[in-house]
Amino acid sequence: MAKKKIPTVSEVREYLAKEEAYLKDCTDNNKTYVITGPKFPGENIWKSKITLPLLEAAEEVGASNEEIWELCKKIAQTTHAPVTLKDYQRMQPFAEKEKTVDTVLKLLESYIPPFDDEYWFGFDIAGYYYCLALISLSDYRREDCEKQLWTTVDQFFDHDTKLEKISVLLRNMKVLGKLRPVLRNMQASIESKVSM
User: Fold this and answer.
1) Which of 28, 42, 161, 173 could disulfide-link to 187, CB 3.0 to 4.6 Å?
2) CB within 8 A of 173, min separation 6: which ones?
3) How far is the C-alpha of 140 from the C-alpha of 133, rounded, in Å?
4) pTM for the whole thing?
5) For residue range 125-153, what is the model confidence (pLDDT) as tens digits?
């Protein structure tokens, strides 16, 4: 059986540009946009909104496409942000891979929720929270992971001033705080802000 080809950043970028051009052509010219099943195996991974940013971050830190593609594949299988401990623990195998953690930390430097957009269109909400779960579970670069989590908490405090969108981040701290005591401090910080 032939090994499946992992796409490069430029291949994913080109594919997404063609898809966007097709959709734009349909809407601009009043054409029917045909929604079909996947055109090829794994197309849902190519289309996932977090795949391209993850592959770009992997390129920056020197991680292998194969390693990051496995993470992209796992995230593309999800239908919602993590809820249960079992959901969060899906990221444990990835949290143990150094280059994957490096990639996710690089991603989270710039992959920030569009707080000005009420519905966060064009943003992979589930993928974002799975990435936060991954660094919450990692022992590698622990201080950097904790720093990024505190940065994320601060981003919510600064941009989600009514704290309407912070509940999923709080859940991350509550569920994983049992395994990672440092997250309890973040949980307490969020809860004190929410109760004000």
Assistant:
1) 173
2) 136, 183, 184, 186, 187, 190
3) 14
4) 0.88
5) 999 999 999 999 999 999 999 999 999 99
